[in-house]
Amino acid sequence: MLNKIDQQEIRYISFEDINTRGLTGARNGQSNSRKDTWGIYAYSKGVHFEEEDSNVEISRGGSHGVGKIASNAASDLHIMYFANCDENGDKHLGGTVQLIEHVYKDQCYRSTGYFTDIKYYDGKKSKFYPYENNFHSVFEKNTRGLKIIIPYLREEYDDEAEIIRSICDSIFISILRGKLEVHVNQEQITKDTLLNYVKSDKYYEQDVTQAKKVFTPLYVDTYLNEKPCEIVVRDLHKDYNFNLYFRYDEQIPKGRVAVVRIIGMKIEDFKVKGNASKPFNAVLIGSPKEDGFLKSLENESHTEISADHIKDKELKRNATRFINNLSREIASIVEEAIKNNPTDGVMNTKDILYVVETEFKKELSNSLGTVINKGKPIWLCHRCSKRKS
What separation, in Å, do the N-terminal and C-terminal C-alpha atoms of the chain show? Predict the structure, then answer.
């Protein structure tokens, strides 16, 4: 750690949102109120802010708590700062460092450190308050919203092309719908430019037959070119309606379904049981009701719908039933597509002819005897090798 601190120049990354709410209640500091999102983000672990409007709460992304420390993992020193500009124009700066070792009263500790001011009252009681943001321009945040700054960025994350791919992979639907624009240095990813990145071999493999791990170009084509059909998926109690954009193509080597939240964020590349190697591609999007249910099925890192993280037995059983029924419903569509798309009758016989030729040579070899003619071997059929007496 000390050798990093002595560096004169350091690698860093910052990202910010614009025209968003930002964090609220910064003036209140460590208030322990669920309404003050600054206090939750800056000082609390495992606390999830919830909107008062249930419809807004259902549709928002929201973090289960992992999001607040994920940025630290990208730093060699596990450190991050966050600058906020709220509805009142108030600008504050906070920060955290994870697993920092320190000595207090001759005892060694490893815990979370906070970049914050502290005020004492009633004798020994104390409370955290954020600093007003009068720091270096790197930490500036002059438009309403939140900015995250990660110094000592790990070298493996310093890859602009990978950052752009990650953006396209995760929120291509939101971008295509014009709900979001993302600027990465000089690059602008918008509904008008997204295809420039997805269709570029600088960022993605363009050969459909090689789409075995990354499926974003296929998803984008499917979403833009296929008409959605409505499918109904049931859990133990309710029906859920989804729009499914479905494409069948014999060139596709791996079948995947992009499960997408209504905000335009992809949760996962869903594998349909027994159909992971079938030639199809699909995008699944629900309405607010369905979105709320999908949100409850997300794991803590927002990368999978699963029942594994659910502790309540009945809810776990319900989630398992839904996921199985989703897989079953899409599997039936895949089967129907296969029936309606028989092969064209043209077969590449190159490999077959090679096998036949090889087998023929083997059998011919086994049926021949060797005859020496002037010191050179020649092959004769056993039936003809006997001399007449």
Answer: 97
